[in-house]
Amino acid sequence: MAKRNTPKLDWGPMGAFVLPKALMAHPDFRELSGSALKVLMLLGSQYNGHNNGDLAATHTMMGAWGGMAKATLAAALRELQERNLIARTRQHNRSRDGARPALFAFTWLPIDECPGKGLEVSATVVSARSLRL
Questions:
Q1: Residue 57 domain flag
Q2: Which residues, in sequence order, are CB contacts of 50 under 8 Å at separation 6+?
Q3: Nearest residue to 52 via CA among 101, 104, 129
Q4: Residue 7 forms part of a structural domain
Q5: Range of the domain at 58
Q6: Tally of domains within the chain
Q7: ∠47-130-121 over CA atoms, to 5°?
Q8: Which residues of 83-110 are buried (b: 16+ CB within 10 A; e: fewer)?
Q9: CATH of the domain at 86
Q10: Which of 90, 11, 22 is closest to 56 using CA atoms?
Q11: Burial environment of residue 129 by CB neighbours within 10 A (0 to 12, 13 to 18, 19 or more)
């Protein structure tokens, strides 16, 4: 009789955002401020397995997560980039046609092809960050 290839846990219809233990053991993750961790979770809630590079964190989006001042959000995004946990894939652009938010990617995952998003970096096969301590 063949084994079934069924998962041990049912994450439900929305799936799950999983953080590698090697990442959580790294000082770059462990020393994050509370606001940076909250922004990381907001980005993770958008990740569906094939949209790394198309993740946004705007002031309006943070409202659904309890709110955050614009300056705090900017500082948290800067902290995540300085600790090499996220990379900016598209700059914020405000024009007559409307505003387009900055987009980000997790550095421990390869950047995915995101057609129509105008990413300023190309898709990758390997991640930019190694998870070695």
A1: yes
A2: 112
A3: 104
A4: no
A5: 21-106
A6: 1
A7: 55
A8: bebbbbbbeeeeeeeeeebebbbbbbbe
A9: 1.10.10.10
A10: 90
A11: middle
* Domain membership flag for residue 9: no
Give the three-state DSSP class for 95.
Answer: strand
Residue 64 lies in a domain: yes
Residue 97 has a pLDDT of: 72
pLDDT in tens, the chain (133 residues): 566 666 677 778 888 899 999 999 999 999 999 999 999 999 999 999 999 999 999 999 999 999 999 999 999 999 999 999 999 999 988 777 778 899 999 999 999 999 999 999 999 988 888 876 5
Phi, psi of 34 (to 5 degrees): -60, -40
C-alpha span between 35 and 63 (Å, rounded): 13
- Answering whether pTM is above 0.85, one says yes
pLDDT of residue 6: 66
